[in-house]
Amino acid sequence: MSTLGSRTERMPIGIVGVSQRQIDREVPASEPPALAPNADLAVVGKPIPRVGGRAMVTGAARYTVDVKLPGMLIARILRSPHPHARILSVSASAAERYPGVRAVHVVTAMETRAAVRGATATPAAFPPALYVGASLAAVAATTRSIADEALRLIEVKYEVLPFVVDMDEARRREAPSVFEGAGQQAGGGGAAPGPPQVGNVRGPATTNSFYGGPRGNVEQGFREAGVIVEGEFRTQVQTHCCLEPHAVVADWRDDGLTLYISTQDTAGVRKDVAAAFGLPREKVRVITEFMGGGFGSKLGVGDYVMFAVELSRKASAPVSLIFDREEEQLASGNRPGTWQRLRIGARRDGALTAISLLSYGTAGIAAGAGVGNIAQAMYDCPNFEMAQYDVFVNAGPGCAMRAPGNVQGAFALEQSVDELAEKLGIDPIALRDRIDPSAARREERRIGAAHFGWSRRRLPAADAGPVKRGIGMAQSFWPGIVQTSASCEVRLQRDGLVEVRSSVQDIGTGIRTVLAQVVAEELGLRPEDVSVRIGDTNFPLGPSSGGSKTTGSITPAARKAAYQVRQALLAEVAPELGVPPEELIVGHGRIFLRANPAHGIGFRQAVGRLKKDVISAVADRGDNYGGFRVTSPMSLARENLGGVQFAEVSVDTETGIVRVAHVVAVHDCGRPMNPRQIESQIHGGVLMGVSFALYEDRILDRQSGRMLNADLEHYKLAGPREMPSIDVFLIENYQAISATDACGVAEPATIATAAAVANAVYNAVGVRIRNLPMTPASILDVLGRVPGGG
Ligand code: MOS
């Protein structure tokens, strides 16, 4: 694709109704003209119903678990019952002979070394089992019950080793060692990239490449402070509980491998599986048609994917492997648990003088348990330092989970800022207006405060009775991440088909709908006129859906491709209409003369007269206009994504039960592409945040190393009865960075919720909750009450 030459475009920039203006941007010549603000568009920015929504709710949509192929086998995984054991021998011969069993795969040290980056090679043939639920072998059989029976026939001799599942214990020098050497894959929370490691502790990470390193002089900053707040905070492990479990169907054939998989990254699965099996990439096809959530747990390629492929190869038959809920809890990933000590200094007028952050976190046998960058990046503060440590324990690996680290970090930061406001005698919103450089969040605080009724906030513990009500707020920060290589194709066929194609997957967040909107807008059609074919690596490769980057990455590519197709179509139609192509407009399903709208031709009619069967264009996203803006932490804080959330709670001081009655969430995501879907996603973010704040908790037994609540009965997720009423407000915040100026909202939507709830609980009872989750027992504990006692 040629980007020879460039031209200047006048583009909208700023917040609609607040600071919206025009800016001149130098853009590559291949880029479409600037897109008008949403108010002036026909389809983009409108609350279009979800494409495929009917199929999803009627059961017609095919998820990976619905894929049934002729001769398909069912695979099950043998998992360690011990939290730490050497594997002395594995005998699978009885399982292999069992009627109905078609293939058995035993995990060996070789593949573990390949799959787990940085691990020290184990001389033994079998890798040690490092947690309850670690995979040891896999079986493919004609039925699930045969596969389960065969697992029982695999004889494993274990040498049980000392283990540790508690982070505080694991930090002690005499604690059992989780790894002989250094370990393990990154989880994404901003933790230590490598050694040094002492015992089970690795780190500290003191810098973040994205946000620069430590800055200023923290000691000096604290000396200049009139007020200092310091607090220790703990957050629990939250497991991934996607509605759709981890699932894959592998179909190995002589002429290539097809994978149907619930993944956030079809292109990444293709790359990694091809590499692992020595296949050329074009021989591997990855398909994700519909998907029931990933949240970070379906970004990487888990070992189970490799097992399914290997079993299919061995058995010469398609193999389906679907996690049950226990496997989801033990081995599909989780949000690491953390301990944080945060210290903030400020002048009497509120200006921050120093922030110092120390954290220990555990992602089980994985790294990546940092608390993110929110303390570093959200507020203006000249002096900052951090030290973030990873602690290994014998538990299933943590992984990326919706705003990795930042949900935990916000719990500490936003409560500390609340505390600071109280000490300074400044309203928490007024303090943030003083220290938060983001114009978007300033407007969000204003809108939220008005709709929520912030002025009714009272002093802490104002209610006299046993049930105390309170309100609080907190906010989020998220960097705008994009994948510049994200690409797609737009096609016009003479038979009338308008199609957009990309490997990008719709993980449940609605990119299918947004792509239809973008192409429809560009071609003057309705979204239902556009056929969206995605989730297939036979199409141009789209982005992975991680870091909230899907919308910001693929929509500019789609608009570019649609624009190029439109130009080609207009060039064909123009002679017939007797004007140059620049004189033509598309809209309302027609192509017509700018000077004489009555004179024109129907879009379908025009396409039907194409000389070629197909007009097609492939485009990728490319860089942000004006270059990437990652220049300093402060410029990031000013120019990126965020949101402000308000919570109203009641706390029953006799039972310890906290209820969240109402949440107001005000967010920005550049140009909102589909307010209805964004609202739905923010509802999900609030839901997950309330669930994290009050209910979810992975309980590991120190005696056995087992998870005591490895199901969805005892691992409590918030349900409909626990949901607050939620009001969502969006601002339009143009940044003039791409052909659509769109950004994602998935992660910022959940960052602030638990912190807002905690601040509201403080306002209700006058006692700060520093540990999550806020269960009845923990509330009674901080209130100095004993359940059932006086
Ligand atoms: Mo996300 S936690 O980058 O899927």
Which helices and strands, and how do they pair?
Layout: E1 6-15, E2 21-28, H1 53-58, E3 73-79, E4 85-91, H2 93-97, E5 101-106, H3 109-115, E6 135-141, H4 144-153, E7 155-160, H5 167-171, E8 197-198, E9 201-205, H6 218-224, E10 227-235, E11 238-239, E12 247-253, E13 256-261, H7 266-276, E14 284-287, H8 303-315, E15 319-322, H9 325-331, E16 334-335, E17 337-346, E18 352-362, H10 374-377, E19 384-391, H11 406-424, H12 428-435, H13 439-452, E20 467-478, E21 487-493, E22 498-502, H14 511-523, E23 530-534, H15 550-577, E24 584-587, E25 590-593, E26 600-602, H16 603-608, E27 614-620, H17 633-639, E28 641-652, E29 658-668, H18 675-694, E30 725-731, E31 733-734, H19 748-751, H20 753-765, H21 776-782
Helix pairs in contact: 11-20, 14-15, 18-20
The quaternary state of the protein chains shown equals single chain
What is the CATH topology of the largest domain?
Aldehyde Oxidoreductase, domain 4
CATH architecture identity of the largest domain: 2-Layer Sandwich
Approximate strand percentage: 25-35%
**pLDDT averaged residue by residue:** 93
CATH class categorisation of the largest domain: Alpha Beta
Query: What small-molecule ligands were found?
Result: dioxothiomolybdenum(VI) ion
**Overall 3D shape:** globular
- Class from helix and strand fractions: alpha+beta
Estimate nothing, just give the exact number of structural domains. Answer: 4
- Count every helix, treating DSSP H or I runs of 4 or more residues as helices: 21
Q: Which superfamily, in CATH terms, is the homologous superfamily of the largest domain? A: Aldehyde oxidase/xanthine dehydrogenase, molybdopterin binding domain
Largest sheet report: 7 strands, mixed
Distance between the termini: 75 Å
The strand order across the widest sheet is 5-6-3-15-12-13-14
**Uncertain regions spanning at least 5 consecutive residues:** 113-123, 181-193, 630-638
Helix content: 25-40%
Q: Evaluate the radius of gyration.
A: 27 Å
